[in-house]
Amino acid sequence: MHAVSAVHPVQLIRRHVQIKAPSTLVISGDDYVLPPQGRLIVLGAGKASAAMAQELEKVLEGHMRPEGLIVTKHGHGLPLQQLTLLEAGHPVPDKYSLEASRRFLEIAATAEAHDLVILLLSGGASALLADVPEGSSLEDVQQLFTLLLNSGAGIHEMNIVRKHLSKIKGGWLAQNIYPATLCALVLSDVVGDDLSVIGSGPAVPDPSTFADTMAILEKYRLLAQLPPALRRYLDNGMAGVIPDTPKAGSPFFKQVHHYFAGTNHIALQAAADKARSLGYHPQVLAADTTGDAHTVAAMLAAAAINWQGPRPGCLLAGGETTVQVTGKGKGGRNQQLALAAAIALAGHEGITLLSAGTDGTDGPTNAAGAIVDNHTLELAAALQLDAQDFLQQQDAWTFFSKAGGLLITGPTQTNVMDLMIVLIT
Length: 425
Known about the structure:
InterPro entries: GK-like_C_sf (IPR037035), GK_N_sf (IPR038614), MOFRL (IPR007835), MOFRL_assoc_dom (IPR025286), MOFRL_protein (IPR039760)
GO molecular function: glycerate kinase activity
Helix content: 25-40%
Organism: Chitinophaga fulva
Largest sheet: 6 strands, parallel
Shape: globular
CATH superfamily of the largest domain: Glycerate kinase, MOFRL-like N-terminal domain
Number of domains: 2
CATH topology of the largest domain: Rossmann fold
CATH class of the largest domain: Alpha Beta
Number of helices: 16
Domain MOFRL-associated: 2-234
Structural class: alpha/beta
Domain MOFRL: 314-418
C-alpha cells in the first residue's frame, strides 16, 4: 500500500498544482495566468480522475471556480463540489461512455482563446470516453473492445485501433479545444509513459495510421469478426474518405502542455524504500514488464528460486502483462500470473509473490490480484482443486476464491499499471 499511496492523487495534485496569485495557477512550476474574462474548464477521464478532481477542487477553493465534467469507472466516483461527475463502463464501454464523450466534446467546443482547460487523465479513459463511428452502434464498439481485450494484444496496439474509431481520441480532443490553452495532468498506466497511448492520446499528435490499425486487426485475426459497419468505416479510412487522426505539426497542439503526475516508476521506488525500511534488500527488476502473464510468472519465479543476493530479498517489477483468453473462466492478468507463479513455486520454501493492479481491480473481478507461495498448491490439493486446469481455463479468480489468496482492496483512486512483489526469506 505504500507504493499505491505514493501515486495517490492526494499526494500528486498538491505537489503539482498550486495557486500563486488570485488569477495565477502554477502547474509543475509553470505559471498560467487566467485573464478576468477567462474560464477555468476541467475535464477528467480515468479510474483516478474523480480523486484527482476532488483534490484539485481543494487546491482551487477560494481562488478559482472550475467548471467541467469528470468521468470515471462505475464504483470509483467521489463527491465533487463544482465539477459534474459521471460514471461509465470499463473495460467495455456502455451508454454512459457515449454520453461522457458527447458532453466532453460539447464542453470542448465552448473553449475560447482566453480559457484554460485542465485535463485530468488516467488509465481507463479509452473505455470511459468511447464514441461510435458514423453508421455503427454501441453494440458494434462493445464487440470490438471485447475482441481486443481477449486477443492478447498489448495496450499500445489496442489503443491504435480505438483511436481510429473515435473523434475524441488520437488528438481529436485537442483539436476541439483549440484555441484555448490545454494543460494535461497525467497518471501513466502504460509502459514507457507514451502520451499517445495513455487514454488513447486525446490531446497529443497521433503517429499511427489507419494502415497500422488494419495491420493489428490482421495480426490478431480479428478482421473477419469485425462488425460490418466498423469494417466499412476502416475501409473508408484506408481509402482517405475519412481523415486520419491529427499529426505532429498541426496548429491544434501549439497550446497543449502535458505533465506527468504519477508513474509506475514512482510506485516502485516507494515500494523499494518501504522494503528497505522493513529490513529487506530490494531490487527493482523493471518498470516496463510486458508480455504473456505465464512467461512473466516463470521469469519471476526463476529469479526468486535462483536468488543469490542477500536475504531477506525483495524483487520488484512493474508493467502490464497480457493474457490471450481462450477459456471461459473468470479472472484478470494479475490473478493469472499469480496462479502460474504458484505452480512454478511449488516445493520451493520461503518465497511469496504478489501481483496486483494499482487501481484495485484486475479484469472483470472484485480483486486487485492475488498472493501466492509454495503452500498455495498444497492447500488447493487438500481441496481437490487442479491448479493447472484452472490456469488453462483462465479461471484464476474461482481458484483463489476457493483456495484463498485473492487481494481485495476496492478502488484505490489511482492507476499506474501493475506491481509484482516477490519476497525471499
